[in-house]
Design a protein that fits this description.
Layout (H helix, E strand, L loop, with lengths): L10 H5 L27 E6 L10 H15 L3 E6 L7 H10 L4 E5 L4 H10 L5 E4 L10 E6 L1 H15 L4 E6 L4 H21 L4 E3 L1 E2 L4 E2 L8 H13 L4 E5 L3 H14 L5 E6 L2 H4 L7 E7 L1 H14 L5 E5 L6 E3 L11 H16 L11
Parallel strand pairs: 1-2, 1-3, 3-4, 4-5, 5-13, 6-7, 6-10, 10-11, 11-12
Antiparallel strand pairs: 8-9, 12-14
Helix pairs in contact: 2-10, 5-6, 5-11, 7-8
């Protein structure tokens, strides 16, 4: 059993890491639309994005994919979203959708927890879902969707420790939120467990679980900061990078690509979504992705609301219910040793049955 610090800020995860309708993917930076007549009589599923935007290749994009998947599964569902450029947009956007009589309003990101709670309590007949936030006690008209990414991040750290050639790996976050640092804690834990099991000394740059101090770019949009920080890690010897920073990760990918083209073999993991789908231009550098099942959870929430079976409460995605997990290895399928794949499968089982108990707090 791994012994790690129990200082992660998961309390933030549990208590606090003009648009028109469409079922098509909107262009970057914009919104897509259909006419009001086209949507007449349909169940309207509405989404308020966080500041990363609809094309963040992370949790906003995954949440919107859930709306699209729900609309594909039920032709009576129309979908729409409003972008938030700052936190001051959250409440006005939610209120706009309340005024539009949306069948369900999906809010994305734990920073919208308070705004969503206030709106839900003031409008008890309005159905909501929120990504990356839960309430205690649960709110009857809010389907709160949270994910135990400690589990698959632990697998990711173990994999990174098993794949590094330099003995040094790195992780960094966009901002120091519980939904970010739970990934970094899990990654750190997984590396330590590999070291314990194999007698190795793989180092983790960018995060110290015991002190809860590490490297952050300050936002989830500035790709230049991601590139600069990743170059710092590469120059310090890291050959596997794990950014937990949404679109900032594209800057990390560019740094990895440049290093590779310069003869330095560096790879990385993507976060939240399958990077080979979200950023296919960099797929050759992604060993895997540490995923949340956001799209499936949002799809289920929307379909339940449209189908009259909606129940508020707290959903927790885990390895057991496929709410979290590692993505396929894609280009690395033949490069990850069979023995390491077998160890990862064993670790998944042990995380599920409690044989491995990382001391970092988790949502379960």
């Amino acid at each position: 059993m791994i012994k790690t610090a129990a200082a992660a800020s998961i309390a933030a995860l549990l208590a606090a890491c003009g648009s028109t309708s469409s079922t098509s993917t909107p262009p970057s930076g914009g919104s897509s639309s259909t006419t009001g007549a086209a949507a007449a009589g349909k169940f309207k599923a509405c989404m308020v994005t966080d500041t990363g935007g609809i094309d963040d290749r992370s949790f906003n994009a995954s949440s919107y994919q859930g709306l699209k998947d729900a609309a594909a599964a039920n032709s009576n569902i129309s979908i729409t979203y409003l972008p938030s450029t700052s936190s001051t947009d959250y409440t006005p956007n939610i209120n706009t959708f309340i005024g539009q009589k949306c069948g369900i309003i999906v809010t994305v990101g734990f920073l919208m927890g308070t705004a969503t709670q206030t709106a839900a309590k003031a409008n008890p007949s309005q159905k909501f879902a929120i990504v990356d936030y839960t309430y205690s006690p649960a709110i009857s008209n809010v389907d709160a969707l949270v994910f135990n990414t400690l589990q698959d991040a632990f697998q990711g750290g173990y994999l990174a420790a098993g794949m590094t050639k330099t003995g040094t790996v790195a992780t960094f976050g966009g901002q120091q939120f519980g939904t970010v640092t739970i990934y970094m804690d899990g990654f750190y834990d997984g590396v330590q467990y590999y070291n314990q099991r194999h007698g190795t000394h793989v180092k983790v740059l960018g995060w110290n679980e015991a002190t809860q101090k590490g490297s952050f770019t300050g936002n989830f949009t500035d790709q230049t900061k991601g590139l600069t920080l990743t170059n710092t890690f590469i120059n310090a010897g890291a050959d596997i990078i794990f950014p937990v920073a949404g679109n900032v990760g594209l800057g990390a990918a560019k740094a990895v690509q440049t290093a590779d083209q310069g003869g330095r073999k560096v790879n990385m993991f993507w976060v939240d979504t399958d990077g080979c789908v979200s950023a296919p231009q960099y797929c050759q550098y992604f060993i895997t992705s540490v995923q949340k099942g956001i799209a499936n959870a949002v799809k289920a929430a929307v379909l339940s609301a449209a189908g009259g079976t909606f129940k508020g409460g707290n959903y927790i995605g885990t390895l057991t219910n496929s709410g979290v997990g590692l993505a396929p290895f894609h280009d690395f399928a033949s490069k990850v040793p069979a023995s390491l794949k077998a160890e990862l499968a064993q670790i998944a089982t042990q995380l599920e049955n409690g044989t491995i108990k990382p001391k970092t707090k988790s949502p379960v």
